Amino acid sequence: MKKRLAQLAAVGMCVAMIGTLAACGGSSSSSGDVITVGVVYPATGALAAYGDGTEEFYQYAVDQINEQGGIEIDGEMKTIELVFADSESDATKASEAANNLISSKGVDIMLTAKTADTTVPVAAACERAGIICLSDDTPDEAWATSDYTYSYHAGFNTENELSCFADAWDLAGISGGTVGVMHATDTEGQTMIDAISSYAESRGYTAYDPGAYTSGATDYTSIINNLKSENCDAVVGVMLTSDFGTFFSQLKSSGYMPTVVTVAKATLFTSDVDSAGADGLASGLCSEVWWTENHPYTSSITGQSCAEIAEAWMELIDGYEFAPATAGYDYANVEILYNVLKEAGTLDADAIAAVCDEIEFDTVIGTINYNEDHYSVQNLCTGQWIYNEDGTWTQNIISAVQVDGLETTGEFVPFE
Question: What b/e readout covers 332-363, taking b as 16+ CB neighbours within 10 angstroms?
Answer without folding.
Answer: bbbbbbbbbbbbbeebebeebbebbeebeeeb
